[in-house]
Amino acid sequence: MTTQSSPYPRVTSLIGTFADWLKHRRELNEIRRLDRGEFDRIAADLEISSSDLDELVRHGVHGADELPLLLNALNIDHARLERVHPLVLRDMERVCTLCGHKARCDRDLAAGASAEHFSNYCPNEPTIKPLEQAGTT
Q1: Contact present, 28 and 53 (Cβ < 8 Å)
Q2: Distance of alpha carbon 124 from alpha carbon 119, whole angstroms
Q3: Is residue 124 within 8 Å of 67, Cβ to Cβ?
Q4: How many other CB atoms are there within 10 angstroms of residue 136's CB atom?
Q5: CB 64 within 8 A of CB 82
Q6: Is the pLDDT of residue 2 over 60?
Q7: 89-136, pLDDT tens digit by residue?
Q8: Nearest to 74 by CA among 113, 28, 121, 123
Q9: Residue 8's Cα: distance from chain center in Å?
Q10: Which has more pLDDT, 12 or 87?
Q11: How far apart are CA 95 and CA 75, in angstroms?
């Protein structure tokens, strides 16, 4: 056995998950230590509401993990979108993070049915449709 391979991949995965959770908790505590004025200034700098910033922080860095998967399912080049329309992508990530249909989106992504059904529930649909038509693939 090499030092590269893990004899307990499940344990290693759980440790990684716990480490990510712990890091997120520390980030939340750091944000909570800010006074309201400072928090509101950060939100204003990001051009989002304070309540959206609070929600985005609670969801953490994985809040929009579905978006690149959805874009891929729709044959939209995420990397190109990031280069050509970075502000559009940033807004789409915000919308994805705040979406209330994560379970349905995850099910459709797992089933390979996102392209057929996303327009029924995805709040990014009004942004995605013009991207598809413009050929941002």
Answers
A1: no
A2: 8
A3: yes
A4: 19
A5: no
A6: no
A7: 989 999 999 999 999 999 999 999 999 999 999 999 999 999 887 765
A8: 113
A9: 29
A10: 87
A11: 20
How does pLDDT run across 6-40, given as a tens digit for each residue?
667 777 777 777 677 777 677 777 777 778 888 78
For residue 118, what are its two tokens?
């996303």
In terms of average pLDDT, the best of 50-59, 80-89, 126-135 is: 80-89
DSSP-derived letter for residue 120 is: G
The pair of structure tokens assigned to 51 is 């309540």
Q: Where are the alpha helices (DSSP H) in the chain?
A: 9-32, 36-45, 50-59, 66-73, 78-84, 86-98, 102-111, 114-117, 125-134
Buried b (16+ CB within 10 A) or exposed e, 64-90: bebbbbbbebbebeeeebeeebeebbe
Cα separation of 69 and 74, whole Å? 9
Question: Which candidate, 88, 78, 70, 64, places its Cα nearest to that of 137?
Answer: 78
> Given the structure tokens 């750091």, which residue do they identify?
30
